[in-house]
TrEMBL record:
This is ABC transporter ATP-binding protein. The chain crosses the membrane at residues 148-172, 226-249, 255-276. It is a multi-pass membrane protein. It comes from Candidatus Fimiplasma intestinipullorum. InterPro entries: AAA+_ATPase, ABC1_TM_dom, ABC1_TM_sf, ABC_transporter-like_ATP-bd, P-loop_NTPase, Type_1_exporter. The keyword DNA-binding does not apply.
Length: 672
């Protein structure tokens, strides 16, 4: 619940739209009450209104009816132009109308016909009263409704206009709420994407890709649903309840007070329901994120899964998660069916029966008779009063899931991010790099992956790192790139402590090529320039030419503007690698890092990259994380790592002469 305020803080961006929607919703609620009152008027004053008092008048006038040669009119239509002869009333028994002269009403009770000229009324106290009566002809029964036709038609037209107006208002209201909620989700996704771009690398090492995607897509959509639903509940629930309850109180204060007494029971019911459904919602959301992460992992690794015939194992693993998701979904459904909307539907029907029973009791015990119109209005308003509660119960699951999602969304937005300072500039480094007694571990309680690492690289030198997987090669380069901050030891660039330099300012002078090159959907040029508008076609082409890779454009009709699909899947591994080299060369870095950049390429491409390395390493400090030792023979210094420690250091010839670890590795590759 603590995040509701933060959700609504986003509303300030479209507050005019939201206020307009709220005003329209209140207008819709008010307009929605009027048709019920008008229907009550039609039922009581016109359809049942023929049994209201009549008067026999001396002459015909507008609104009068001729019955058995005499003129009769209801007092509401009577004017002073004709004198009143006597009171009269109309009684309906078995679809037949009877005119009783001399009295304005025959009282309430059971009715039956004695003979053609008499009717008998058994009053509520058991007394029987007989009245002389005249049975109206079919024409006279039609004529008696004649004065009502014009006002009823007018009311029906007003009803139609009100329904059309309410529909139009509801359309605008729904459009505005939908637009506001969509804008909210858009802003949330933007902020989350912006946050993601600024998060430290270690977050992505510990969080599955699918979970991150789920937070930015599914969870923001759930918050959008929450926003639109909660607004509807607040406006309809609060304003609607007040307006409708006030109207019901005017109709019958006693029964309205009785309804108010049972309201705390309903509120407690909703509270208990929410308590149980929250437990399931959290589990369902967590499992949904786990499903997304598993799907993402399997899609990325589908080739490996199929090559090693692991389809059944992966299917079994997915089935475990999916079955657990189903288990909690069924529990949630059972809770909804046993406590939620369906049970409340029964309560609504019971409440309508209670209304009829209440008015029946008033009639039998107290002799207070309610008109059909009032009973209709009360039942209708009672339904309107319970609608918001019904909406709440039917939305509890959605609201709880959305609250869980909001915790994930704002928990993500509250993550500590890297300090970003794009405006800070530093002079181009000469490339003098010194590691001094660096020890590093990824987590405070985890093992050290680097232990007392010390080495020095002079400007424009090439240094290579070799060692088995997990020896600490890539971690060393990650520290140099400031992907992680070190706490033990020192790293200096041109004499400046690296931790004190702006990450963004330093990275502008560093180029990096990874073992698994990352390309983006676009073109060859956009992947070399990273969409920098300052880079021209000639500049991008020159970067390719610098590493001797311009020939890869020959097979593409559009040349440098050839399409690159997502992650560069339409290019070979070697082509992706060469584009990554061209990207690094374009920005002319003073420090170049090649993280096993030649590990996954063919011999011909390796020759091209060897040429590129000679060109790229001129006038810059170059760090190479090597897999193929043949590519680093000319390095100024080679460092051999094992278990996070430096075990050997020197040139290629020096290390070969030592007959140590490097010698063994080189010998094993040479014998392949």
């Amino acid at each position: 619940m603590k995040h509701i305020g933060r959700i609504f803080s986003y509303a300030r961006h479209f507050k005019l739209l939201l206020v307009s929607a709220c005003v329209l919703m209140v207008a819709s609620i008010v307009i929605g009450l009027i048709p019920t009152r008008l229907t009550q008027v039609i039922l009581d004053d016109y359809i049942s209104g023929v049994e209201y008092p009549w008067q026999e008048v001396s002459e015909a006038q507008e609104g009068s009816v001729n019955i058995a040669g005499q003129h009769y009119i209801q007092p509401r239509y009577h004017t002073a132009s004709s004198a009143v002869v006597q009171d009269a009333c109309v009684v309906i028994i078995d679809n037949q109308m009877y005119l009783v002269s001399g009295v304005s009403t025959v009282g309430e009770g059971s009715r039956h016909v004695v003979n053609a000229n008499e009717i008998e009324i058994t009053l509520t106290d058991g007394q029987r009263v007989t009245y002389p009566a005249y049975a109206l002809t079919e024409q006279e029964m039609r004529d008696i409704y004649q004065p009502y036709i014009s006002p009823v038609v007018t009311l029906l037209v007003v009803l139609a206009v009100l329904y059309l107006a309410q529909s139009a208002i509801n359309y605008l209201n729904n459009y505005m709420y939908s637009k506001a909620s969509i804008e909210l989700a858009t802003l949330l996704r933007y902020d989350m994407f912006d946050k993601m771009e600024k998060l430290p690398i270690d977050y992505f090492q510990n969080e599955a890709d699918g979970r991150i995607v789920s937070k930015i897509t599914n969870d923001t959509d759930a918050v959008r649903n929450f926003f639109s639903t909660i607004i509807s509940i607040i406006i309809e629930g609060v304003f609607g309840f007040i307006i409708i309850y006030f109207t019901m109180y005017q109709l019958n204060a006693q029964f309205a007070l009785l309804i108010l007494c049972i309201l705390p029971v309903i509120v407690f019911w909703i509270y208990i329901y929410r308590l149980f459904t929250n437990r399931y919602s959290q589990k369902i959301r967590a499992l949904n994120a786990q499903i997304n992460a598993t799907l993402n992992e399997n899609i990325k690794g589908i080739r490996i899964i199929q090559v090693f015939n692991q389809e059944k194992f992966m299917m079994d693993e997915f089935d475990k998660i999916n079955s657990e998701f189903l288990h909690y979904r069924v529990k949630q459904m059972h809770l909804d069916m046993s406590v939620g909307g369906p049970v409340f539907g029964f309560f609504r029907r019971a409440a309508q029966i209670a209304v009829i029973a209440f008015f029946g009791y008033q009639c039998v015990v107290n002799g207070q008779v309610a008109s059909y119109g009032i009973m209709y209005a009360f039942v209708t308003y009672l339904g309107n009063l319970l609608d918001p509660i019904d909406v709440i119960l039917n939305s509890v699951e959605v609201l709880e899931e959305a609250l869980v999602s909001s915790e994930r969304v704002f928990g993500f937005l509250d993550l500590s991010e890297e300090k970003v300072d794009y405006d800070e500039e530093i002079p181009r480094p000469a490339g003098h790099v010194e590691f001094s007694h660096i020890s590093f571990k990824y987590t405070p309680t985890g093992p050290y992956v680097l232990k007392d690492i010390s080495f020095e690289v002079q400007p424009e030198q090439t240094i290579a790192f070799v060692g088995h997987t997990g020896s600490g090669k890539s971690t060393t380069m990650s520290l140099l790139m400031r992907f992680f901050d070190y706490e033990e030891g020192s790293i200096k660039v041109d004499g400046h402590e690296l931790n004190s330099v702006s990450k963004q300012a330093f990275r502008r002078h560093v180029g990096m090529v990874l073992q698994d090159p990352i390309l983006f959907k676009g073109t060859i040029k956009s992947n070399i320039s990273l969409n920098d508008e300052r880079v021209t076609d000639d500049m991008a082409l020159a970067a390719l030419q610098a590493i001797g890779a311009e020939r890869i454009l020959d097979k593409y009709e559009k040349g440098i503007h050839a399409t690159v699909t997502n992650l560069g899947d339409n290019l070979s591994t070697g082509e992706r690698q060469l584009l990554s080299f061209a990207r690094a060369m374009l920005y002319d870095p003073s420090i170049l890092i090649l993280d096993e950049a030649t590990a996954n390429i063919d011999t011909q491409t390796e020759q091209m990259i060897q040429h590129a390395l000679k060109v790229a390493s001129r006038n810059r400090t170059t760090f190479i994380v090597a897999h193929r030792l043949s590519t680093i023979k000319e390095a100024d210094q080679i460092i051999v790592l094992d278990g996070g420690e430096i075990i050997e250091k020197g040139t290629h010839d020096e290390l070969i002469s030592l007959h140590g670890k490097y010698y063994e590795m080189y010998l094993s590759q040479s014998n392949l």
